[in-house]
Amino acid sequence: MEIFSENPREKIWQMLDRFQYSSNIISHFEKHSLIYDSSLADSISGSIAQSREYFTAAANSSLQISPLLLYYGTTNLYYATYILVNGKLPSINSHGMKLFKPEKLNYIGDIIVKILNSETGAINIYTKLFESQNMAGNWSLIDFLRSIPELYEIFLECYKEEQSNLIPITITKKRDDTFEAFLIEALARVQYSDQFPNNIINFQKAYLSPQQSMDKKRIILRPKLNSIDIGVYSYTGQKYLQIAYSRNNLLLQMPLPILFLSSLYALGFLTRYNPEIWSNFNRTDLTGEKLVFENFTDLCQRLIPNYALNKIHSTNHQFTNSRQGIRDFQHSLRESDVKELIKEYFEENRE
Question: What is the pLDDT of residue 330?
Answer without folding.
Answer: 63
